Amino acid sequence: MKKKRFQQKKVIVCCGEKMTSLTIRPWMQVGFVLVCLAAAYWVLQTSVLYFFSNDLIRTREIALAEKQSENNRLKKELAYYQNRVEQSEKLALDIQQAHKDILDKVDLLVSEEIKNAEGGFEKVEKLLKENGAPISTLLQKVKKEENVGGPYIPDMSSALLTFPYAQKLTTVYDKVDYLESLVTLSDQMPLGYPISETRISAAFGSRKDPFTGKRARHEGIDIAAALKTPVHATAPGVVKRAFTNGAYGKFIEIEHEAGFMTRYAHLSEILVKKGDVIQTGDKIGLTGNTGRSTGPHLHYEILIGKNPVNPYRFLRTQRGKSNV
Ligand SMILES: [Zn+2]
Fold first, then answer.
1. Non-local CB neighbours of 207 within 8 Å, separated by 6+ positions
2. Stated pTM of the model
3. How far is ligand 1, taken at its centre, from the CA of residue 197, in Å?
4. What is the pLDDT of residue 26?
């Protein structure tokens, strides 16, 4: 027969001389064991939670400290970069201001140069207008020729458009372009004297013919000079004619850009030939007394298109000088 685990038990308790019998029933024993087990479970769980939660808190505290440290580092880094950005912005503003200052200076200089260059054409402008070749028309010709290998004009559709002073920059470039055209035109026009002598012995226009004594048209200017004085081209060009030409005697004709032509007559010697490319100042001949001439001198003509014009103002205009 199987023995029951929880049997009814009797406990005799002596209290002085009195003896008392206590009956402990099976359910009391089961209850006592259950209470003990519950107490043990509670103690165990509390202990485990206590130790593990401490570890968890410590781990979280460490993680928090690390994050705070990282946060501080990032804050410092942010402050550093904000500072760098501020410095860069300040530098950018300084550079922009410097650009503006430079542009203003360039603008001023170019404007002054334009004024000088335009002033240089003052004396000849009326003549040019009368001959249907005002400066504006001649500048158009110069511009067309500049299309190949002309001045560098940046593409304003590029990043330059984002430049804060793009409009100002465009204006300055336009002025520089205009100035270059003026200078190019000035270089191409027959300006100054073809010889070192400057005494005019016969003016342009109507005069008494030295041979017939009758009024006749003189289509050039005569500059008195000793025999064999060197004659220089007054502008770059190409020799169109160079031979002995009746009344002109030994004669040179040079075709220049922008529709100008110069003629040099009564020479004693011709030092160029047809087709030669001539630069300003090149020695092309020597003065003489050939052809219809009464003494050594240079007969000098300037033509615009096919029209002879008075060379006087061209003789008196020097390249790059506004006051002539
Ligand atoms: Zn003459």
1. 215, 216, 217, 218
2. 0.66
3. 15
4. 87
